[in-house]
Amino acid sequence: MSLDLLTTVATGLAVVIVAAFFAYQCLQAWAKNAYDFYKNDPPSNCDIDAFVSTSEYNSNPPKKLKVAFMHKVQCRGLKGRTARTTPMELECVKSPHVEGLYVSRQAASEGGKIGPEEAIPIEKVLATKQRGHKNKPPVIVATIRMGFGHHRIAYSACSWAMEMGHTTIFHDFLNIDSDEANMIKTLDHFYSKFSRIASEFGSWAETAWGKAMKQGDADALRVAALTGAQLQCLLTKFPKDTPIVCTHQICALTAAAVGFTNVVNLVVDNYPQWFLVVPKTLNITQGETFICTGMYTHTRYLARLTCGWYNFDFLYFEFLVFQAPSTIRVT
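Predicted structure:
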């Protein structure tokens, strides 16, 4: 190889390295500004950085390029999505499947579909009391109809709440015909598509996808929180002191962003990674492990959860959340 050729190759490599370094520095500068902007657009009551970085056990500075890029791809798009800040107008219909259960949907005034069933204003449902239970507040069960059973578990939570005499609203984010629901559907579409691709190729592809799904670290929680903040309009129609039980962590993150004061997050994954734990929320796992991150609670009542949340007496919620919110101090 001649000296001139070696010089040309070396010069080319140097140019590529310098260009890559310059591009990386530009991306880092963009990510720093973008991340700080995304955290406050729209404003949120859920401070994820404080939640994951101010513990004596955890010091997790954000990887801003990773978080900002993932949020840009998932939610903002090329044109830059702007979150709706006005509440979504809602109404309810009576469930055709569960007697006494109310199901929320987009109100006709928002362009929602008008069906043959009677539409009940959300304010009227919230003011409805069950016979013999006039002192019990209404309960929202929030879910997203995707994945491996969030919907089914939400119906179980509704059964518990209704049995204890609470007027119960089944609030599926995907049942609210809106841009926000379409964004969730797009995320679910890509998740399902990559899962199928990994299964079809098998071998290294399936292994790589499996490892990616286990990277539920602090930055994954940051990405999820930014997504939840984009969906606040789906919950802001409800009073913030309304008890809300969530069977999807995005619902719980949205509730935390809005500023709900009584939120229960049912962690439905039997491998509960960190990104499934939500600030300002009572987080409960399926098994014998109870997650109570960032909160204080009376430990003597945790004994009721030793069989897992799917088998515990709903009276636990009755005392700790719905009737005695002062026993919980959220951070």
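Summary: Confidence is low (pLDDT under 50) at residues 289-312, 314-331.
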